[in-house]
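Both lines are retained for reference:
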Amino acid sequence: MPRTDPSATPAPVPVTILTGFLGAGKTTLLNRLLTGDHGLRVGVLVNDFGPINIDAELVVGVEDDMISLANGCVCCQIRDDLVEAVDRLLAREEPPEYVLLEASGVADPLGISATFNDSASREQIRLDSITCVVDAEQAFAYAHEAPELLMLKLRQIGCADLVVLNKTDLAGPEQTAAVRRWIDQNLRRVRIVEASYGEVPSEVLLGVGRFDAARLDLEHAPHDDHGQVFDTWSFTTDEPLSLGALEQMIRRELPGAIYRCKGVVNSSEEPARRTVLQAVGRRSEIVTADPWGERTPATRIVAIGRSGEVDGAELQARFDGCLAAAVGAGR
């Protein structure tokens, strides 16, 4: 069942970990997210040695290891303990609304994610998703000379909620298909987004936690020129949904072609309060939020998926099956 989020308690800041082997394109993807039209004040943590790899034209000011970016983002290279870095980031005069952490190319993301699941930091920050970037062209590089590298890449993919199969323009269709088969043969239920130059909409990659329903645009997500790569589908109803049925459907039955699902839910279990649904890749969260107040209770959900594979009729049937009336009739 969903957790209750008292309106008087500040919501934890969501964090997305970007993982993937050296040269996969994590920094390119990071820069695209920093300059994206998502309307969020984003904090960035870079878990690597050496200078922060961000395009020079984005940097407008430097103070010790803190960098201010033109769109209101802040970066901090992790030199000390991760928890200390997070504390410093959140203690700024204008703390971030979202945090992106670029992990080292040879890092195992499990250790990093464990930090955000620790009870000591859970009230301040929460793990929203883990995204793994894979270089489609070089996925099998050094497979014979150094098979341990291939295993590291698999571990990074296995920890992820969503995989961005990057540089498909360089790999070509045959190599890209071979990498997909390799992932499917070794891991189950991996959601894979194919991309070139890290071009993936922020709507697919980022959850914004307990967002304001006014931000939910069912008509124009995703934005920019991604319409030929991603399809969207929306679900609206004034009838209450069963949260138990919704949670089970999202976790067990949501089609693999759906990368992102978010919305505000009118539920039979919590009729006086809004419930927020967030699903990114394989990770999902259903949280009871603030009272409806003067707003008319209604469910509004948007799903984003692979172009040509978003089956509206199937999705409609699955969400209709979560209506409280349908659940009650089936008992």
In short: The longest strand covers residues 125-135.
